[in-house]
Amino acid sequence: MERPVLNIFRRTRPHFRIPGSTRLLLPLAALLSACAVTPPTEDRTSVAAPARTDSLVAPPGEGLREPLYDGYPGRDQEPGPLPRNENLWDRISSGMQLERYYDRPEVREQVRLYASRPDYFEQVGERARPFLHNIVQQIEQRGMPMEIALIPFVESGFNLHARSSRAAVGPWQFMAGTGRSLGLRVDEWFDGRKDPILATTAALDYLEIQQQRFEGNWLLAFAAYNSGPATVGRAVRAHEADAGNIEFWDLPLPAETRKHIPRVLALASMLFGSGQTDFKLPDIADEEALKLVKLGGGASLSLAAELAGLETEIIRSLNPGFRQWWTPPDGGPDFVHLPTENAEALRLALQRNPAAVQSNSIRLQVRPGDSLWAISRRYGVTLEDLLRWNSLEADQLIFPGQMLRIAPPTERLQ
Fold it and tell me: What is the pLDDT of residue 405?
């Protein structure tokens, strides 16, 4: 299909390389996820306020009404070897399937707005850096349009801790009930909505269901993701046409949804026409940034970080689903994703001593400026438990260098 001509973009093949020393700093990019970047829009609204649905499948922005399906295609598949590109942006661009929509006036208007923020891709791409390769692999494995990889750029600015006014959480913006229905664990130990890799699997499952529901129409599937399948279904019925033959642009959908899809397509068109342009792309090599290491239930993330040669804050930033400093003691997820070299160091340590990450307790040293309340917040424990484990009174002072004890998960569950 002929590619649209956008005056502000010229398609060339950019050449990006990351020096070996820079690759070691990949996990630091995840620390940027604590602050969001709002997509440049005139009304500054980045996430839709979803409509109610009476359908079996609730959208990511809505609560669950009934149990969902038992299984989904692709959930248990391991990504296989796929062709490598010089950089990941080229790989994303080559997998796009919805180019015929890029020259729509609605899309061109969003391109204009994004063009006013030439650093948008650079800032959001840094947050996505450690996880984007896996997302691309999952999409390619299913043969889905690569435009999908840009949905979390619009939904949350790829802020892993983003939370909407309706309590949709994470880069893909799932409500708790919908996340659970799609196989994500959401409880006091783990919130799979914040884990970009696990949440991507759930999001792709959801989009596949909606694409089948709307007879292969991907834009209607995107719309259902944003505003709910019931809302889109009613609009299709009101138009008195089959979903497979109807145009998204002709449907009476909520105003936010009518902006949301053009935003995704606008970002896609900007990448598709990238080259000597005014916007910046962070250098992201087309190679796996993270490796999985199995720890087992009740494993200490602090000990795992020490054995891997990482700061504890980095291991948490790369595995944001964990809500405590241990893996859940009653089942998965019982693994972490780490940069390749750190993952190998942890694997070797666990081969020598499989129990190396199991601990009866964690001993921590009080830092200057610490308080008992701050320590309890940092380690995800209650102040009452922290006082009890260390035989302290609520009004007792602590001092820098003092050693305190944090009990293991098994003791905390008693």
Answer: 84
Scan for tokens 């490796």, then name that residue.
291
Virtual CA dihedral for 122, 5, 220, 145, nearest 10 degrees?
-60
78 is annotated as an active-site residue? no
φ, ψ for residue 404, nearest 5 deg: -120, 160
Burial 14-45 (b: 16+ CB within 10 A, else e): eebebeeeeeeebbbbbbbbeebbebbeeeee
d(C-alpha 304, C-alpha 324), whole Å: 14
DSSP string, 51-83: PP--SSS--TTS---S---S--TTTTPPP----
Q: Which two tokens stand for residue 188?
A: 């006091």
CA atoms within 13 A on the CB side of 261: 26
Which of 157, 23, 2, 149 is closest to 89 using CA atoms?
149
| Rg of the chain on CA atoms, in Å | 23
Domains and CATH numbers, the chain: 20-272 (1.10.530.10), 290-352 (no CATH), 362-412 (3.10.350.10)
| 33 vs 106: which has the higher pLDDT | 106
Question: Does a cis peptide bond (omega within 30 degrees of 0) precede residue 339?
Answer: no
Q: What is the pLDDT of residues 197-242, one digit of tens each?
A: 999 999 999 999 999 999 999 999 999 999 999 999 999 998 877 7
Residues in Cβ contact with 374 at an 8 Å cutoff, skipping those fewer than 6 apart: none
Gap between the Cα atoms of 172 and 225, Å rounded = 10
Pair 202, 172: CB distance under 8 Å: yes
> Token pair for residue 345?
């160091």
Q: Which of 155, 208, 256, 341 is catalytic?
A: 155
What is the pLDDT, as a whole number, of residue 407? 76
Give, for 258, the enclosing helix (H) or strand (E): helix 255-272
Count CB neighbours of 145 within 10 A. 21
Cβ atoms of 297 and 331 within 8 Å: the answer is yes
Q: What angle do CA 361, 362, 368 make, to 5 degrees?
A: 145
Determine the 3-state secondary structure of 337 from DSSP.
Answer: strand
How far apart are alpha carbons 240 and 346 in whole angstroms?
59
* Burial class for 124, CB neighbours closer than 10 Å (0-12, 13-18, 19+): buried
Q: For 310, phi and psi rounded to 5 degrees?
A: -120, 155
Average pLDDT over every residue of 235-251: 85
On whether the CB atoms of residues 285 and 23 are closer than 8 A, the answer is yes
Q: Which residue has the higher pLDDT, 22 or 93?
A: 93
